[in-house]
Every structure is written in C-alpha cells, then in structure tokens.
Specification:
Layout (H helix, E strand, L loop, with lengths): L14 E3 L6 E2 L12 E3 L6 E2 L17 E2 L6 E2 L12 E3 L5 E2 L8 E3 L9 H5 L4 E3 L8 E3 L3 E3 L9 E3 L2 H6 L3 E3 L8 E8 L8 E9 L5 E7 L4 E6 L8 E7 L9 E7 L4 E4 L7 E11 L5 E3 L6 E4 L1
Parallel strand pairs: 1-3, 2-4, 4-6, 5-7, 6-8, 7-9, 9-10, 12-16
Antiparallel strand pairs: 11-13, 14-15, 15-16, 17-18, 18-21, 19-20, 19-22, 22-23, 22-24
Length: about 300
C-alpha cells in the first residue's frame, strides 16, 4: 500500500479491509483519516510506515485491544501518533519500532521483543509480556504435600527478573484443595488477549503411616507388623517386606490391605535372616486415580 494513498481522507473513510497479500503499508498512507475506526489487517503484513495512521484518532474505537498480524516485523516512527488506540497486541516477529511508534499500552506475546520497546518503556508507556506461561516459568514452593484436613496450595514465583517486572497475568487456584487428588493452577491474561490456560498442577496425597511394632513368633516362623491407622482420606495401605534394605524388586513382597486393617502376619520366615518393613497409605480419589503417601521410615527385625 503506497505512501500518502489515502492521506487526509477525513471522516469519509471509516472501515478498512486489506487484501491478505498486502505486505507493506507505507509512510503517511492513512494520515489524518480521522473517521477511520476499524481495520482488518492483512495476514501477510510485514511493515507499517512512518505516520501511516497518524492522527487517526478513532482507530480501534470500542475495541478491547488491537491485535497486530503475526508476521509484522517493523513499525515506523510516529506510525500511530495522535490516536486513542486501545492496547495493541504485538507478535513475537517484531524486530524494530521507530521513535514514538506507540504511545498506548502494548502487550507483547514474547519476552524476546522487550528490547525493541526501550523507547516506549523509557517514556512510561505500559508494556507487559503476555507469553503463555508454563510450569517451568515458575519456582514452586512445593508440588506435593500430605493431607492436613485444610485447603492448601503452593506459592509460585516467576523465574527471571524480566518476567517478574513485565509479565501480565493473574494466577488462579482451586477454591478448595483439601482432599487427596490433583489440582490445577491456571493463568488469565489482560483483556482476554490469551485464553485462560493451565500453568501446572500439584497434588495432595494421604498422610504418612507409622509402623508401630514388629514382633517375631519363632515357634511358628511368623512375623507380625502393626501400624497406626488413618481415619480420613485413605482407601487402604501398601506394605512391603524385603530381605534387603534397598527393597529390590526380586527380593520384596508387596501387599495391599484395607483401611480397617492395622496389622498383618507373615509366615515362612527363616532363622538368622533380617527382614525390612515399610508402609504407606493410598487413596482412590474422585478423578479415578490412586494417590500414594510417603513411605514410612524403614523398620527391621532379625528373625
């Protein structure tokens, strides 16, 4: 689109729809088109020239934001001067912005383009990064915690000084995360620029169980293990007995017991052998998945 093409068209031009193949809007192309409100940007647009939409004071009127096309690479000086634009959403492809290119709030889809907007930042223009956040963008105070009877969730802190300063988002946690299960943290972004999306998840697992006693009955070659039972958020117990402290698979017996059980007896024990025990609780949650608590400290007994 050539320079000065519609310069000073006045109030008569209110709406623009470009052919998708247009790659350039040159200098002063729509300068002082003061009636212009709506623009449908061409998908192939690479460059907006100096003063291209200067003094188009109603451009974007009534919109929550103005999204620039995904292939845009450069914006000339004062390209949108004298406008009352809503916030502009800038793609990651932008590599240069001229002096006073923007004076309205700018939302960047990538933190990599922050360096391009040094002039805007120095002038106090609101600049925020609205990249899609993931679990790795945050440090988590914890990812799994034992059931306590109360709702609990981790604290998330953004990694890196740049994101901490410029990221635009709001984190949302479940209203309650007291029961055993998996819970999701979501992020929403200003003005609905991005859809609310999951950032990551954390789990609440059953409380730990403690082995209270191990006893040997040598006359019948039996060992009995006793443990403290849980009263809530527990479907049962998983107990392991092993002839090695590492609980190697080939030398370990794993059994599950109902939530009402508090002890179990094993037979066939061999004299002079040491047996290692540990136990944990499990819970089948509302999502149909089974969650396991932490293993108890290992206890051993020599038969």
């Amino acid at each position: 689109m050539g320079g000065w093409a519609f310069q000073q068209a006045g109030d008569g031009l209110t709406k623009l729809t470009f052919p998708s193949s247009v790659q350039r809007i040159d200098d002063y192309a729509f300068y002082k088109c003061r009636g212009l409100e709506q623009v449908t940007w061409p998908a192939e647009l690479r460059h907006v020239g100096a003063y291209a939409f200067g003094d188009c004071k109603y451009l974007g009127y009534g919109k929550r934001y103005l999204r620039m096309p995904s292939k845009l690479q450069s914006v000339g000086r004062w390209a949108f001067s004298g406008t009352h634009l809503p916030p502009i959403v800038v793609p990651a492809s932008v590599r240069s912005v001229g002096e006073f290119g923007f004076s309205n709030p700018v939302y960047l889809l990538s933190a990599d383009t922050l360096s391009v907007f040094k002039d805007e930042i120095s002038r106090g223009v609101q600049v925020a990064v609205v990249k899609k956040l993931t679990a790795s963008d945050f440090s988590w105070s914890w990812k799994s915690r034992a059931y306590s009877g109360k709702s609990q969730h981790p604290t998330l802190a953004l990694r890196g000084a740049t994101l901490k300063k410029y990221a635009g988002y709001t984190l949302h946690f479940p209203k309650s995360s007291a029961k055993v299960g998996r819970y999701y943290v979501t992020a929403s972004y200003p003005r609905g620029i991005r859809a609310t999306a999951r950032v990551g998840s954390y789990t609440i697992v059953p409380k730990s169980v403690r082995l209270t006693k191990l006893t040997a009955k040598r006359s019948s070659k039996q060992l009995t293990a006793t443990w403290s039972r849980l009263t809530s958020q527990c479907s049962g117990y998983q107990l392991q007995i092993s002839s090695t402290s590492e609980f190697s698979k080939s030398r370990t017996i794993t059994k599950k017991y109902s939530v009402t059980r508090g002890k179990v007896t094993f037979g066939g024990c061999k004299k002079g052998k040491t047996y290692h025990f540990r136990i944990r609780a499990y819970k089948k949650a509302a999502d149909g998945k089974t969650y396991y608590g932490a293993w108890s400290p290992v206890r051993k007994i020599r038969y």
